[in-house]
Amino acid sequence: MDAKLRGRLHGFRLVLTGRPGLAGRVLLFALLGFAAGDLPVLVHGAQTSWVWSCCSAIACGAARYAAAAWRLHRCVRGTMLFCIVVTSAGTALDFSRVPPEAILYLCGAGQSAGFGWDQLLGHLRWFPVTMMAMLALIVFRRGGVPRGARRGRTGAALLAALRIALEFGAMSVLMALGMSAMEKLALGLGVPWVANGMVCAMLTGMLAFLLLSNWVAETLALGAARARALRSG
User: Fold this and answer.
1) In 32, 175, 183, 202, which residue has its Cα 20 to 30 A from 63's Cα atom?
2) Sorted alphabetically, which keywords does the UniProt record give (predicted)?
């Protein structure tokens, strides 16, 4: 085996084992985002637009770069990867219930009235599998059921349920707002609003929520640790 072939095999092994440089990781997330945004639509034979395919790739790649730039915990990267996969799978199952073109029309009805509860409830109605995937993502992100809740402690169980409900609501609102904003931007710029645009909006909203919530949590935890260190010193 010559040196050039060994070098290529080594590079391929680095990609598989997750140890490429930051640029390689960002590229991998971008390629995954490109596929995750288009596959749910293509399997149902619906129309796609390269604009939204590229936007999905940019959103996923930018999220991976932001996680590294903000020095978020390593588990956040795994959660983002899980988010991309379950969003793609969830929308594919939702599109098997109702055709993408029908969901585009139903979600876009009344769009001129702006964002409101009716639109949010519409997303919950037409994307039930994706919403369940979001809920699973939040539980997975928190490491499952807290120990106190598993032991039957009412206070711990209620607090865990409240946190999950608040995070689920915030993620749903952010995703719906992102979809509303992207649709209006597309109509204003003359870009076709097609099914992979909806998937792109959901990916972007969910990844933005994960990044912002983890950044806030880690910033608060770091501030609390510094405050305790100052008091003890």
Assistant:
1) 183
2) Membrane, Transmembrane, Transmembrane helix
